[in-house]
């Protein structure tokens, strides 16, 4: 597969997707969304890839959906084209995905980062949902995921005023897992993804599914699902190997990694 708006590179068991439209600060055009989805699905289907890193440049993760592409669209066209549905498909990828975010993560850029499973932020990262200033609201899940991540008060304030949040506040608010110096961002994210990729892939997929269920189900249902999921782990060779390795005081040699 050849891409024109992203770069892909595999490092060991980590698949990297780099948004590469610097002249537009990585504004997310429809074509770019399709490329990101194609690349992510290819990694998802590859047993040789155990985790994905999605990143941009040190200046911008992504400055939003492509305003120039959207501006003249009618409501009817958006319905007919099912605009933004590519991002729903990206959220269905089962392989763990880490967003390494530096610089602007605005509008759709912030939403894309939140579609990933967790965010590692550079100290210069800036998160915001400034759509209100354009006369619209987020359309890639931002109103839902930001609210779940940082709570109603901050999500309301950000979405209603368009205020941007720096990395330190983002960490304090639970939007990002960790903040690192911008120069160390990509290596840190790849190292983190490599740890994930060293585990059993069906089990990391199971862990991701369990956590995601917490956002979809009442507690008792979620706990029931978790129980079924851990029982299913016991049907996998990697559970036998992981526990045997512990008892034999040696590193686990997972078969499915
Ligand atoms: C299209 C964009 C863009 C975007 C930047 N560019 N953001 N093009 N869509 N979202 C383009 C600029 O037009 C410019 O191109 C080039 O990238 C460099 O940007 P500058 O503005 O010159 O850079 P700077 O002065 O450093 O300002 C950076 C910035 C600003 C603060 C990030 O670019 C900005 O405010 N961008 C828009 C942020 C935003 O509103 N995002 C939300 C989009 S709506 P030219 O050709 O002029 O040099 C969204 C949700 C959609 O994402 C869902 C609702 C429908």
UniProtKB/TrEMBL annotation:
<dbReference type="InterPro" id="IPR018376">
    <property type="entry name" value="Enoyl-CoA_hyd/isom_CS"/>
</dbReference>
<keyword id="KW-0456">Lyase</keyword>
<dbReference type="GO" id="GO:0004300">
    <property type="term" value="F:enoyl-CoA hydratase activity"/>
</dbReference>
<dbReference type="InterPro" id="IPR014748">
    <property type="entry name" value="Enoyl-CoA_hydra_C"/>
</dbReference>
<dbReference type="InterPro" id="IPR029045">
    <property type="entry name" value="ClpP/crotonase-like_dom_sf"/>
</dbReference>
<dbReference type="Pfam" id="PF00378">
    <property type="entry name" value="ECH_1"/>
</dbReference>
<protein>
    <submittedName>
        <fullName>Enoyl-CoA hydratase</fullName>
        <ecNumber>4.2.1.17</ecNumber>
    </submittedName>
</protein>
<comment type="similarity">
    <text>Belongs to the enoyl-CoA hydratase/isomerase family.</text>
</comment>
<dbReference type="InterPro" id="IPR001753">
    <property type="entry name" value="Enoyl-CoA_hydra/iso"/>
</dbReference>
